[in-house]
Each structure stands twice: as structure tokens, then as C-alpha cells.
Amino acid sequence: HEAIETGTGTSTYSGKVPLDTTKAGGKYTLNDGKRGGHKTYDLGGGSSGTGSLFTNSTDTWGGGRQSAGVDAHYGAAVTWDFYKNVFGRSGIRGDGKAAYSRVHYGNGYVNAFWDDSCFCMTYGDGQGNSHPLTSLDVAAHEMTHGVTAATARLVYSGESGGLNEATSDIFGKAVEFYANNPAVPGNYFVGKQIDIFGNGKPLRYMDKPSKDGRSKDYWSSGIGGIDVHYSSGPANHFFYLLSEGSGKKTVNGFSYDSPTADGSKLAGIGRDKAERIWFKALTTYFTSTTNYRAARTGTLQATASLYGNNSKEYKAVAATWTAINVK
Length: 327
Ligand code: ASN
Ligand code: ZN
Description:
The protein contains 8 helices and 15 strands. By secondary structure, it is of the alpha+beta class. The strands form 4 sheets. Strands 4, 5, 6, 9, 10 and 11 form a 6-stranded mixed β-sheet that branches. α3 (158-179) crosses α6 and α5 (233-244) packs across α6 (271-285). Bound molecules: asparagine and zinc ion (ZN). Zinc ion is lined by residues 141, 145, 165, 168.
């Protein structure tokens, strides 16, 4: 006999969180019966297979090696809820089926990744095995690679690769805002909590991507030749500008200052609409070979279909692409 339960966990990055679990034979497991049976495994430093399903004698989780499991399980649940409640999408492939998560991958592994062949995501423990790569925005970023693989299938190189990466950053941060978790105020800095550099700085900045020293703020010819985590810059910047507008702004206590290539001033149409436009474009108009120019066209088609081609939203999308030099 199995029962769906709701426990609580103390996470590494998201404070105390509810966790949906399963009870069987007097024991609890990180098996989320409310979301397709999403399971979270402990790889125990291994790099293949599934290791062991997190199991506990009570439904209170966290501490030691469970903490990273709590983050991963929570991140998967919130990401599922975001896609379901905001876009009506049931699971990564829209078929109600769960993926699964694996934590404690390898030794001192400073990355996390989605793998479409196992339909799973995997998290390393970070430098010195002490900083798991399991923050909410990272979890949602990786799961969004699964959504992209199931929809536009943007090829992971060249400009389409940059758009693939940006899609993961965009919805990674959208999920964080959606969670509305007081321990994780929504922001536009990617991977701030995992502190990969050890100096408190995020991996990427959506308001001004070049702040990381590598990403591009604006499109230019040849941008498809750089790493996809940097050619994502203009699209991340597009999403920030479309949501919040240009210039100085403070959101949830975080301060931003977002420039435009042409000096134009943009007001922003709000994050919810910007998310809706990007999702509609991703799932309806983008293809595997969509580049920046085609992304402009695809998001304009999405905006016309959602808000009309005479709408203020349509004008804002056009002006925002122009502001990052995609004309
Ligand atoms: N964490 C990285 C990413 O999601 C892994 C990779 O480079 N594919 O982009
Ligand atoms: Zn990625």
C-alpha cells in the first residue's frame, strides 16, 4: 500500500519547504505522487545509474546529504507547478509524465545538467563538495532544457544555441518569481545562490549581460560563434527589457540598470506578458534553426496572436528587439 504524503524539508537554498512524498512499508521516499511520480535519487558520488531513492523514517527531511535532495525535489515540484498553472503544460513533455532528479553526482562537480536521453536532471556538489548546484533557478533552468527539447528543439550551437540557453535562463528566473518563496526573492541574476565564484556574484546578469565579462548585451554578426552561455546574452537582455524596461529599476530589493544599443527608452510590459510571449513563441513559432532574426519574427507572431498586431505589446516587442540590435 502506497500513500501520497506531504512532508517538509530544510533545503540548502530555499529555506523550509513543503515536499510531496510517498509512504510505503512505514517509510517515506522522495517520490512526488502529485506530479507524475517525480523521484529524487542520491548518486552518492557516482556518475551513472540512479543510486538510491531518498528514503527516510519520518516525513521531515534535510541535513547532511538529504539537503541537496530537498532542493532538487522542491525545484522539480515548483517547476512542474509553474508550467502547469501558468501555461497549462502538464510535465516537461506535456504528457503528465515525470522526469527524475539525481543529486551528489561525482566529486567536486561544479555543474548541473539536463539529459534528454534519461529524461532526468543531475546536480553536482560544487567546489569541495560543499555547494550543491541545486538552487531553484538552476533546477528550473535545467528542466527547461527538457521543455525546449520537447518543443522548438533549438539546436545547441550557434545562435539557436544561445536562444536555447536564454530560454532556460528566462524560465529559470520566471519559476523563481513564481515560487514567491521569502527565502528566494525573485531576481534577474542567474545562479546567484550557488556562488560558483565564491565572491557572491551570479553566473549571469539579465539586465546587462556583459557584467559577467563575457556575455554580449546586443546582437552582432558572428555572435553565433561564441559559447551558447554567452550568446544567450542578447535574448536574456531582451527578456529583461521587455519585462522591466530600460534604465534603473529596483525589484524585490535588487537593483538593475539596463542599457539599450540605440539609447532608446523602454517602459517594459511586465514579466507575466513577457513570459507568455516567449513561451508561445517557443512552443509555436520557433524551430530547431531559429536564429536571432527569426526569434524577432517568432515573438512578434506570438504577440500578435496573444494581444493583436496593433497592441502596445506588439510595439514593445518590436522596439525591444531593435534596442538589442535585432532589426
Ligand atoms: N548547466 C549547463 C547548462 O545547463 C550544462 C551545460 O553546459 N549544458 O547549460
Ligand atoms: Zn543551460
